[in-house]
Amino acid sequence: MGTCVLSVANMTDILAEARHLRRSVGQFVTGVAVVTYESDGRPRGVTVNSFTSVSIDPPLILVSISREARAASGLHGSPSVVNVLAADQLDLARHFAGHPQCGLEIRWSHHRPPRLRGAAAWIECQPYAEVEAGDHILFLGRVSSHRTLSKEPLLFHTGRFRLFGDRAESRSEDEANVPGWVLISQAQTLAEEGVTAHDLTD
Fold first, then answer.
1. Beta-carbon contacts of residue 93 (< 8 Å; ≥ 6 apart)
2. 94 by DSSP, 3-state: which?
3. Bridge partners, residue 160, by sequence
4. What is the number of H-type helices and E-type strands within the chain?
5. Phi, psi (5° rounding) for residue 13?
6. In 26-165, alpha helices (H)
7. Mind giving me the DSSP string for 130-197?
């Protein structure tokens, strides 16, 4: 049986290609959501921007979660809520993406599965299917209830949080050296940077 050996040059090419792919995909403007669920009796959440509607009949949505994330096991077979963040919820986006915000008050609704108050919309789902896709798992949920509020959404584009017509996020010099995708790509991608992926609660 043959052995495949990757040279340093090959690894460099692979990493460069991954960066270029992220840059290309980053041109697609998305909203920002926090997927919330319950684990060990406590509310949990993970920031995502890979969220989409799949079907109207039946009503299905999909989120993509890294295999390395705690959320991957937490969402397995569990009801969840996709909280579409409003423009004034940047701190929540960063908090649930693995960047704890000191003094942040997380306003949970008294509901199971847990929901975040103040979101532009929320979509509650029951587990429908899970599909293994490379280094991620695609979680499909069947929508059981939902609500929309008249609030501007938080956006994400080219590695940064944005508002309509402006940029919501400014960075310090240190943060400017952190790849933009780390700040949003679902907390679990922190594992790709050698940081243990984790979920955050209040």
1. 32, 34, 47, 85, 154, 161, 184
2. helix
3. 157
4. 4, 11
5. -65, -40
6. 70-74, 90-95
7. EEEETTEEEEEEEEEEEEE-S-PBPEEETTEEEETTEE-----HHHHTS-GGGGTSTTGGGGGGT---
Which CATH architecture fits 30-193? Roll (2.30)
Q: Are 120 and 86 in contact (CB under 8 A)?
A: yes
Tokens of 142: 């069947």
Tell me the one-letter amino acid at 147.
R
Q: Mind listing the pLDDT tens digit for each residue in 149-168?
A: 989 999 887 667 777 766 55
Cis peptide before 113 (omega within 30 of 0): yes
Question: Which 8-state DSSP code applies to residue 75?
Answer: S
Domain boundaries in the chain? 30-193
- DSSP code for 26: T
**In whole angstroms, what is the distance from residue 33 CA to residue 81 CA?**
10
Asked if 85 contacts 123 with a C-beta cutoff of 8 angstroms, the reply is no
**pLDDT at site 117:** 95
| pTM of the shown model | 0.73
Neighbours of 73 (CB within 10 A): 13
